[in-house]
Structures are given as C-alpha cells and as structure tokens.
Amino acid sequence: GALPSTVLVAGATGALGREVCARLAAAGVRVRALTRQATLPPALRPHVAEQATGDLTRPATLDAACAGVDGVFSCAGAP
Predict the structure, then answer these.
(1) Radius of gyration of the chain (CA)
(2) CA 75 to chain centre
(3) Any idea what the Cα angle at residue 34 is, between residues 9 and 78, rounded to 5°?
(4) How far apart are CA 8 and CA 61, in angstroms?
(5) What is the rounded CA–CA span in Å between residue 33 and residue 52?
(6) Which residues contact 54 (CB under 8 A, 6 or more apart)?
(7) Low-confidence ranges of the chain (pLDDT < 50)
(8) Is 73 helix (H, G, I), strand (E, B) or coil?
(9) In degrees, to the nearest 5, what angle opens at C-alpha 33 toward C-alphas 68 and 78?
(10) DSSP code, position 4
C-alpha cells in the first residue's frame, strides 16, 4: 500500500528515532517530530518537516501533535 503522507515520530531525538526520521523522509513521507525540548537537534532538521513539542507521559500535550497525521511511529523508550 501507499505510505502515509504525514507521520508523527515519537522519540525522534533518540538514536532509533533519528534513523526512522531519515528513512521516512527519504521515502517521501512528511515527518513531524515529537520532542520534549523546544529546539530540534541540527542532525534531525534535514529530515523533519515540522516539530511538535509534547511529552508522552502528559497526554494533554499530545492532541496538537497528533492533529492531521496519518500515522504515528513510536521510538520512545522508557526513561
């Protein structure tokens, strides 16, 4: 099937998340990175179309991050 047009990647700043973002972007998927920090790490910037700030342990912060995405890819690990 066709790839989703926009995917939210939770845990985008981790080692696995960075790789997933790069591969999704290379496949033509629009990547929205979910991060806890306000600034996106420089290595992620070429692969991420937009950033959403939120925290998986605070569900109220996730509504806006999930709005308009076609799928979610979680690379988040336990702290």
Answers:
(1) 11
(2) 9
(3) 80
(4) 14
(5) 6
(6) 34, 35, 36, 61, 62, 64, 65
(7) none
(8) strand
(9) 115
(10) P
